[in-house]
């Protein structure tokens, strides 16, 4: 699947966002190793911190569907922003853990602007599983 199609999937996923407080909808589409796409959208909560971002929703959904960490091919993220939207810090950390540092991350907006990066570029000097293995 090309990244333009993956971005279209993220735009479709954004339609399911539950955003009664901010009105800021985000969609994510995670491509697994079998070519299946897992949609994610942000889900808000009146207490704010119990909410979940689109990127984590897509990753957690894929894991719950039986896909293993490290088997994902790419993720696209989209929002109605001036510049292509990027994942928050928490999502960047989860991307590192579940997807790996070299996985492509496609950033977009509803105007059609797209920027391609990797998890490593989004989270340089990251703390990951290897740091914990060193302590054993």
Automatic annotation (TrEMBL):
Record key words, sorted: Hydrolase, Metal-binding, Zinc
Reactions catalysed, as given in the entry: 2'-deoxycytidine + H2O + H(+) = 2'-deoxyuridine + NH4(+); cytidine + H2O + H(+) = uridine + NH4(+)
GO molecular function, one term: cytidine deaminase activity
Enzyme Commission number(s): 3.5.4.5
Residues that span the membrane, as ranges: none
Obligatory cofactor(s): Zn(2+)
InterPro entries with a match to the protein in the record: APOBEC/CMP_deaminase_Zn-bd, CMP_dCMP_dom, Cyt/Deoxycyt_deaminase, Cyt_deam_tetra, Cytidine_deaminase-like
Keyword Lipoprotein part of the UniProt annotation: no
Domain CMP/dCMP-type deaminase: 1-130
Pfam families for this protein: dCMP_cyt_deam_1
Function noted in UniProt: This enzyme scavenges exogenous and endogenous cytidine and 2'-deoxycytidine for UMP synthesis.
PANTHER family: CYTIDINE DEAMINASE (PTHR11644)
Protein's recorded name: Cytidine deaminase
Source organism (scientific name): Paenibacillus phoenicis
